[in-house]
Hints:
There is one protein chain. By secondary structure, the protein is mostly helical. It has seven helices and no strands. α3 (63-78) runs parallel beside α6. Residues 1-15 have low confidence and may be disordered.
Amino acid sequence: MRKLIVAGLMVCIPLGVSAQKAFKDWPEGTSPKTVGELVSKRFVEVPHPNFNGNPAPPNEITYPETCAWFGALRYADITKNKKLLRQLEERFLPIFGPERRLQPLPDHVDHTVFGTIPLQLYAQTGKEIYYHMGIWYADEQWKMPRNTKHKEEY
């Protein structure tokens, strides 16, 4: 068994070194850091989008926006970009007030994933208000959807 593990490691090491080299020589303007900065900057500058093909303002934060927001938060964390973190947090704060209507109901996985945003904010800021909101979404994902038409059991 040990020989198999050692052989596996020997095969992986050259691949790892090759991959590391491949991820160093980016054409100008295409490095992960540059692209991450551009995407994150764009995200904080545009209003909440409506991904349903409707030009009207959205009724809720949608799955694609949640994923983009989470990615921008992770990028801010990995790059230690405190300014970006502050901008992403400022985008979130209206959810507690004037934009409360945009907070998705936790009735489907596409909606409960929204909880990753406050949990990521909590992980980076330590502010408990984010923790409580994120945990609420996490707990709600285990409940039966409100619009279930027949009795289902877990």
